[in-house]
Fold enoyl-CoA hydratase.
Amino acid sequence: MAYETLIVEIEDYIALIKLNRPEALNALNSKMLGELATVLQAADANDKVRCIVITGSEKAFAAGADIKEMAEQSFVDAYTANLFGGISDAILEIRKPIIAAVSGYALGGGCELAMACDFIIAADTAKFGQPEINLGVIAGFGGSQRLTRFVGKSKSMDMHLTGRNMDAAEAERCGLVSRVVPAKSLIEEAMKAATKITEKSLITAMAAKEAVNRSYETTLREGLLFERRLFHSMFATEDQKEGMAAFLEKRTPQFRDR
Ligand code: CAA
């Protein structure tokens, strides 16, 4: 299927989704948000996809929500359309792992989209920021909540109140991104990480994602119980038998997602 604002390739069990509005530094307009939700849902339901990678261009992962589209909107427009609510909810429902491969600007909604993915691999050129305050608004796609959980209150406040950008080195130092790679090898490195994930049991990868995400939703005690129950349930899978047998037999496991 062809999209107006995205380029989507599915190969070797990886769905590579490239944000593609170069004329606006991949600003997230309503068309792109709708297409992104549709593609993510389709990838989640597609047996030929075991991991999803979202990326942008060399200059910009995404420079935020589309300011031209938002400029004249009223409260009623934003509230009625549930601006950013659709994608925010949709991405939470995706059960397969999603990697954000970020080069250049990831600002406002762009930073928030990256943070809504399961982890971020950043090019050394990446710049993260929540500059909404400069526009007379605040973050609307999770920035105040996710950035605070990732980097702590002080740095999150600094980012949201001053609107300054963070470079890739700072983002790695404070735990916003999992690793920084040279810009020219960003896609290669993201695809390598995705390939590693495709080689695991999908059931186990989904359970790991579910368990980690639960840590953001609950108390430690409840989270530990949730993890333990999920861990116990893994013993009902054939892939647990295969994974452990393969280890003991010193061979590569042949997972069957069962
Ligand atoms: N929305 C719409 N268009 C945008 C855009 C955005 N967020 N960001 C960039 N563009 C457009 C520019 O208007 C420009 O278009 P024209 O050539 O037609 O004028 C084109 O992309 C190239 O941008 P610049 O000329 O500005 O490029 P630059 O290299 O000089 O600067 C930049 C790059 C620093 C990223 C700058 O474009 C910028 O500050 N962009 C806005 C960043 C921002 O404020 N993002 C937050 C948006 S609000 C939000 O995201 C709310 C939320 O939480 C959901």
